[in-house]
Each structure stands twice: as C-alpha cells, then as structure tokens.
Amino acid sequence: MKPNLHNPYGYKVCYKEKGSKEYIHRFLTRSYREAKEIKLMYHRYPPMSSTDYRPLKKPEWVIIPIKKSEVKDGI
Q1: In this structure, are residues 22 and 16 in contact, taking their beta carbons and an 8 Å threshold?
Q2: Rounded Cα–Cα distance for residues 55 and 48 (Å)
Q3: Cα 41 to the chain's mean position, in Å?
Q4: How far apart are CA 2 and CA 49, in angstroms?
Q5: How much helix, strand and coil, in percent to the nearest 5, is found in the chain?
Q6: What's 48's DSSP letter?
C-alpha cells in the first residue's frame, strides 16, 4: 500500500512485536519525512518496551497516517 504523503493530521510510528497482533504507537509526527527519520532511528537504536521496560523481541516498525476520527476523539 502506498503511503499518503500529504496527510494533514500527521503520522504515528508504531511497532508490533513478534507474536503480537496489535500495533502499539510509539511516536507522533506532523510529516512523513519526520516519521521516516524516527523509524530509521528506532531500527538503529531499538528502544525498550513502553509498558514494562524490557527489550523488544523482533519489533516490526510501521508508519500509519492519523485519521480525522482519531483527531476528533483526541489522540
């Protein structure tokens, strides 16, 4: 799927660990370029889990556009 590079609401950098089914958002950005840079940084220097501070097991990083409904609900 081709990413929308002109999303007015921003982007989420999310990860999913091996064996998990849901994505956990880690970082919010305003532009796709910023999201791509953050994703590359997380590939180079993998962070710890945000819930229990343990190393992540083979995380899969993705960039997801923020939807208008998420903005209305208050990210």
Answers
A1: yes
A2: 5
A3: 12
A4: 28
A5: 25, 25, 50
A6: B
* C-alpha separations of 11 from 31, 38, 54, 55 in Å: 7, 11, 25, 24
Residue 59 has, within 13 A of its CA and on its CB side, a CA count of 24
5 in Cβ contact with 66 (< 8 Å): no
Q: Which of 41, 45, 39, 49 is nearest to 13 (CA)?
A: 39
- H or E, element range at 14: strand 11-16
pLDDT tens across the length of the chain (75 residues):
566 677 889 999 999 998 889 998 889 999 999 999 999 999 888 888 877 888 988 899 999 999 889 888 886
* Interacting residues of 62 by C-beta distance below 8 A, sequence separation 6+: 13, 14, 15, 16, 23
